[in-house]
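Lab notebook: predicted structure, single chain.

Context: the supervisor wants predicted structures on file for every construct in the current expression panel, including those that have not yet been purified. This is the next one on the list. No modifications to the sequence; it matches the entry in the shared construct table.
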Amino acid sequence: MQKHPCVLTIAGSDSGGGAGIQADLKTMTVLGGFGMSVITALTAQNGLGVTGIHAPEPEFVVQQLTTVLDGFPVAAAKTGMLFSAPIITGIADVLKDQSFPLVVDPVSVSTSGHALLQQDAVDALVERMLPLAAVVTPNKPEAEMLAGMKIETEAHVQTAIERILALGPKAVLLKGGHFNEDEEELIDWLGFPGEKPCGLHHVRVDTKNTHGTGCTLSAAIATYLAHGADLKSAVKKAQVYLSRCLRKSYTPGEGFGPPNHAAPYDG
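Prediction complete. Output recorded below exactly as produced.
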């Protein structure tokens, strides 16, 4: 494994710099990867919300992807905002022939509540992207969308993970940030086919600067996988990194700030 393995993000651009490919590339760089990007959509956004979305033609998204793959030995990749069914279909047609691990973050709604996935893209995400995933990383609303059920109890968590695994990914990481929001401890649930989900415990960080946390976590998992870590170790290391970024976070502008991706170097 090379010292700075090539890690690819396939996601939307956040003009505010806190989420999307900007968060991904910062994370990959800090964690010792060489980050590359395929941009699926341009967003006009800041810490207060998303004011507009512009997506390139699907053919150009695919051209970005094939050009990167032709020029770099990609060691791992992640997807974020994929926006439309044609973009998802085009990307999946290329990725299905690749052997590197793929982290699928099923981004559907921004922190501010703006839809980032067109309605007809949900089926394409489920049918084309999930079967390619080494791990899919939904939060509670995303897991409820994928599993087709409400998730309120630990028993619900297990059933939801089983349902999502049945869609084809090799593993599911159900993130706990939207559960029991008044409790100090969080549990992210990691599930594999045929196994009981494993609860990965960590301490909730009291901060409003949560813009881009899902992007940061999935990018960190992909980077650790690129370095050769097994999935469970990659997830645990990514949790530690994100927690530190949240503890060291600040608010650079109006509204919700992002994690501080440079936290390992910030004191």
